[in-house]
Design a protein that fits this description.
The protein is α+β, with helices and mostly antiparallel strands. It folds into 3 domains: about 45-135, 2-Layer Sandwich (Alpha-Beta Plaits); about 140-185, no CATH class; about 190-245, 2-Layer Sandwich (Multidrug efflux transporter AcrB TolC docking domain, DN and DC subdomains), CATH 3.30.2090. The chain is built from 8 helices and 6 strands. A 4-stranded antiparallel beta sheet has the order 2-3-1-4. The chain has a two-stranded antiparallel sheet with strand order 5-6. A hairpin with a 2-residue loop joins strand 2 and strand 3 (about 90-95). Helix 3 packs across helix 4.
Length: about 250
C-alpha cells in the first residue's frame, strides 16, 4: 500500500492528472444521470354543508346527515365518509381515494344530492358542495369586525352581502366564511289558546307565512327610451308587518 502511494508522491503531475480524471468522470456521470419525475399524487375531499336553522342536532342527524351519507357513500372513488351534526347545520366530508378524478366525483355528488333533495326538509337550505385538496394546503386569515352603531345580526348581514363576495373574488382565495355571525331572522311565537279559539293549527300559520312572504317578478314596462322591471315586494320585514298578517279568512 505504501509503494502505491509513493508513486503519486514521487510523481505529483501524475497525481494531479488522476484527480482531474476522477473529477471529469464524476461530473460527466452526474450530468448524464436520468432524472425521473416525481409521481403525481392527488388527495382530495368533498365537503357538503347544509343549514337548517332552528333544528336540533338529532333532527339534523336524522333528516339531513343520514340521507346525504347514504347517497354519497355509493359513489365510485369514495374512500371514507365522515359527518358532523350540530344544531342548525350538517357537515359531511367525503374523502376520495388517492388520485381519483375530483371533477368526476364532484359531478356525481352534485347529481346524487339533487336526487335526494326531495327527501330533505323543505325548510333546509340548499346543500353547499366544495372541494378541499390535501396536496394544496392553504393558510387561514381572520379579519375581525365590530361596530358601535350596528348590532351583531346587522354586521353579519352586511358582511354576507358586501364583504364576503368581494373577498371571494381575490386571486388565490379559496374560501371565505363568516364565523360567529348571527343571521337576521324573525321568530314567531304562537299562542295556543288563541289558535284553539279560532279553530286553527300551527300549520295554518306556516302556510300563511309561505303564501305572503316572498318576492315575485311582475314583469316589465317599456317606453320609447326607458325599460323598467317591475317587482312585487311582498316579503315581510318588521314585527308589525308580521303581526298584521292574515292567517285565515272565512265567510
Amino acid at each position: 500500500m505504501r509503494a502505491f502511494t509513493d508513486i503519486f508522491i514521487k510523481h505529483p503531475v501524475l497525481a494531479l492528472v488522476v484527480n482531474l480524471v476522477i473529477v471529469l468522470v464524476g461530473w460527466r456521470a452526474a450530468t448524464s444521470l436520468p432524472v425521473q419525475q416525481f409521481p403525481k399524487l392527488e388527495n382530495s375531499s368533498v365537503i357538503i354543508t347544509t343549514l337548517y336553522y332552528g333544528a336540533s342536532a338529532e333532527t339534523i342527524r336524522g333528516f339531513l346527515t343520514t340521507p346525504i351519507e347514504r347517497a354519497v357513500s355509493q359513489i365510485a372513488g369514495v374512500d371514507v365518509v365522515e359527518s358532523t351534526s350540530r344544531a342548525g347545520s350538517s357537515n359531511v366530508t367525503v374523502r376520495l381515494k388517492l388520485n381519483h378524478d375530483t371533477t368526476t366525483a364532484l359531478a356525481e355528488i352534485s347529481a346524487r344530492l339533487q336526487q335526494v333533495r326531495s327527501e330533505l326538509p323543505a325548510e333546509a337550505e340548499q346543500p353547499v358542495v366544495e372541494i378541499q385538496r390535501a396536496d394544496r394546503p392553504y393558510a387561514s386569515f381572520y379579519i375581525s369586525f365590530n361596530s358601535k352603531d350596528r348590532t351583531v345580526p346587522q354586521i353579519t348581514d352586511w358582511l354576507t352581502r358586501e364583504i364576503q363576495p368581494r373577498l371571494a373574488t381575490i386571486t388565490g382565495v379559496q374560501r371565505v366564511t363568516v364565523e360567529g355571525g348571527r343571521p337576521l331572522a324573525m321568530r314567531v311565537w304562537i299562542d295556543r289558546n288563541k289558535l284553539t279559539a279560532v279553530n286553527l293549527a300551527p300549520g295554518d300559520i306556516h302556510q300563511a307565512l309561505q303564501r305572503n312572504n316572498y318576492l315575485a317578478a311582475v314583469g316589465r314596462t317599456k317606453g320609447k327610451e326607458v325599460e323598467i322591471n317591475l317587482l312585487a315586494n311582498t316579503d315581510l320585514r318588521t314585527s308589525e308587518e308580521f303581526s298584521r298578517l292574515i292567517v285565515s279568512e272565512r265567510n
